[in-house]
């Protein structure tokens, strides 16, 4: 009787992030982090900080960052929401927009945080199976629903879609919120932020963690028409009115304004990625054409878990998912050319046995 309170405890399966190494001798290609440092302008902001700068609260609404992002994307600050990484932004959007008794739809192979939020917030959902090539069929998302979530490009598959797909999706879902998760869009063919001006039910989320090398700073954003942003703002202000600290705001602004460095870094990663596709295919891997900063690969003769464990023993971490349909695939973050050569060397050693 004394432990009856246990029946009131939450029962949920949490999201599991990639392994964090305990020393600096590991090549970390398992968390889709950027291998290059942030913009030098970010370093200038950090170098100019003193302890006294942290006495006061930051701007509660991150207005300087909203203004910088609005200028870059041709929007108004009222079309921008900022939070602690895109996970925080997505969770806020789930709270704000998915309150129907109808299920929301998202792909069955995708970012594994979506079902966690649905369980936590008691949101009904249905997953729509991707096909044998891990591609999303837009027609699966036509039926009546309580909302749609599509990551573009998708993770962990690395596959993206273009404007035609997104417009089709929006046209068939005019009476619910369509959320496009663009964590990797800077490495892909298309970002639909431009469509925010036309569709009043579209929400687009992005992050500074991938293309802007600021995963440790935790900065994310959403773009939508002002009414939708106001609902997200209301949710934020109901549980955490100061989501971004002062350093995060200032360094993020500096990053946004350094377009040249941003473009150069993204282009380097895409170049290394495309070379990696060819190298792995030459070693017999099946590798999807990636629109992200990672590769999704499988070998016909060596189980993914075996490859994962072997390269780990050689000091290289990649991501292995022990899940249906993808348990023979590895997700490999694109590192520097030198880091990737270490990975290829470890794989060649295994294949030569």
Summarize the structure.
This protein has 353 residues and is an alpha/beta fold. The protein has helices spanning 40-47, 63-73, 85-97, 113-121, 163-171, 226-239, 246-257, 259-282, 304-313, 337-351, and strands at residues 27-28, 80-83, 104-107, 125-128, 147-151, 178-181, 202-207, 220-223, 286-287, 294-298, 316-317, 319-320, 330-333.
Describe the structure.
- By secondary structure, the protein is an alpha/beta fold.
- The chain is globular, with a radius of gyration of 21 Å.
- The mean pLDDT is 95.
- It has helices spanning 40-47, 63-73, 85-97, 113-121, 163-171, 226-239, 246-257, 259-282, 304-313, 337-351; strands spanning 27-28, 80-83, 104-107, 125-128, 147-151, 178-181, 202-207, 220-223, 286-287, 294-298, 316-317, 319-320, 330-333.
- Strand 3, helix 4 and strand 4 (125-128) form a beta-alpha-beta unit.
- The strands form 3 sheets. It has a 7-stranded mixed sheet with strand order 2-8-7-6-5-3-4, sandwiched between helices. The protein has a 4-stranded antiparallel sheet with strand order 9-10-13-12, with helices on one face. The protein has a two-stranded parallel sheet with strand order 1-11.
């Amino acid at each position: 009787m004394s432990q009856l309170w246990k029946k009131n405890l939450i029962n949920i399966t949490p999201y599991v992030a990639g392994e964090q190494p305990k020393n600096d001798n590991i090549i970390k290609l398992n968390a889709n982090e950027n291998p290059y440092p942030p913009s030098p302008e970010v370093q200038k902001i950090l170098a100019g900080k003193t302890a006294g700068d942290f006495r006061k609260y930051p701007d509660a609404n991150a207005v300087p960052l909203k203004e910088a992002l609005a200028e870059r994307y041709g929007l108004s600050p009222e079309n921008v929401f900022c939070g602690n990484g895109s996970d925080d932004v997505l969770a806020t959007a789930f709270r704000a927009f998915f309150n129907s008794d109808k299920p929301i739809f998202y792909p069955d192979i995708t970012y594994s945080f979506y079902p966690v939020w649905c369980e936590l917030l008691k949101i009904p959902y249905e997953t729509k199976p991707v096909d044998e090539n891990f591609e999303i069929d837009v027609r699966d998302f036509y039926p009546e629903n309580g909302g749609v979530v599509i990551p573009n490009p998708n993770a962990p598959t690395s596959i993206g879609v273009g404007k035609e797909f997104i417009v089709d999706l929006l046209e068939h879902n005019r009476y619910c919120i369509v959320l496009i998760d663009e964590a990797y869009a800077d490495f892909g063919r298309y970002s639909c932020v431009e469509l925010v001006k036309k569709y009043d039910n579209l929400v687009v989320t992005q992050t500074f963690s991938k293309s802007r090398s600021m995963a440790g700073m935790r900065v994310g954003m959403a773009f939508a028409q002002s009414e939708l942003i106001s609902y997200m703002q209301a949710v934020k202000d109901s549980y955490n009115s100061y989501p971004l600290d002062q350093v995060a705001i200032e360094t993020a602004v500096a990053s946004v304004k350094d377009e040249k460095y941003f473009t150069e870094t993204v282009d380097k990663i895409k170049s290394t990625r495309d070379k990696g596709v060819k190298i792995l295919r030459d070693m017999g891997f099946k590798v999807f054409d990636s629109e992200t900063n990672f590769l999704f690969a499988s070998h016909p003769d060596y189980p993914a878990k075996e490859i994962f464990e072997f390269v780990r023993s050689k000091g290289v971490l990649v991501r292995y998912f022990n899940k249906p349909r993808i348990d023979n695939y590895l997700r490999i973050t694109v590192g520097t050319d030198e880091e990737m050569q270490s990975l290829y060397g470890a794989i060649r050693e295994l294949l030569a046995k």
